[in-house]
Amino acid sequence: MPRSALVLPLLALAACGGGAPQLGPSNKAPAPPYEASFGDVLGFLPADSEVVVGIDVAQIRKTAVWAQLAPRVERVLASELTQIRSACGFDPLQTVERVSIGLHARDQDHVAGVVVVRGVGAGMMGCVRTRFGKGGEVTDDKGVAVMSHHDDPKSAWMVVGSTLVVEIDERVGRDTVHAVLASGSPLRTSHAFMELYGRLDRGASMWGVVNGATKLLDEADSAGMRPVTVEGTLTMSDRVVIAGTAVFASAD
After folding, report:
1. Which neighbouring-strand residues pair with 236?
2. What is the CA angle 176-116-102, rounded to 5?
3. What are the pLDDT digits (tens) for 73-96?
4. Alpha-carbon distance values, 50 to 14, 103, 212 (Å)
5. Is the pLDDT of residue 192 over 50?
6. Which of 97, 108, 223, 224 could serve as a FRET partner for 117 with CA atoms 20 to 30 Å apart?
7. pTM
8. End-to-end CA distance of the chain, in Å?
9. Helix (H, G, I), strand (E, B), or coil: what is residue 227?
């Protein structure tokens, strides 16, 4: 995926009430079956994910560290931010709430998975076609934008409400993206992942879990340094605290 296509996840280091029940028939369409999964930080991430990352952007924006960091991000990413704000019609530093990523590798050069960005603007899909699709080919598959670049994995982009779902794989399209939406939260069926996830600090601004068996770490074998698992968190407040654990097969 090109650098511009990764801007939203990277910018992640930037950001209804009740009443009396209504009587009689309602013309409001029922919520789609996948509606509940949008509120789940693990929603739509594949069960076979080997690298999983969660970023609580809304929390980060409230911190003293971000107040100091934001002007620097504006300067470093000034060109990209200007283009996104103009082409997409929203400011990702202000609207993005959360980013979740679940990836697995068929080999070191082929990565597949799902990226979920909660808090995009209404112009996101038009932006995908005109901005992120530059330098490659973007086709429309019944409301799903399928993007293909020469040296990058193929991806399918769809916005539901204010949530962007990006599926990365060799074969993607409307049907595969809708299958992702219908899957709910499949990663929660992985007992091994959930055991690691259960140990993470729920107050972390950013967290990550890596399965050491991923082919992305094959080069670590030659050095005898392949971990079994890696887990870590980054917490921002008036300071940045990083904590992590790597488990190896033996003490050696």
Report:
1. 240
2. 80
3. 999 999 888 888 888 888 989 999
4. 25, 6, 8
5. yes
6. 108
7. 0.84
8. 37
9. coil
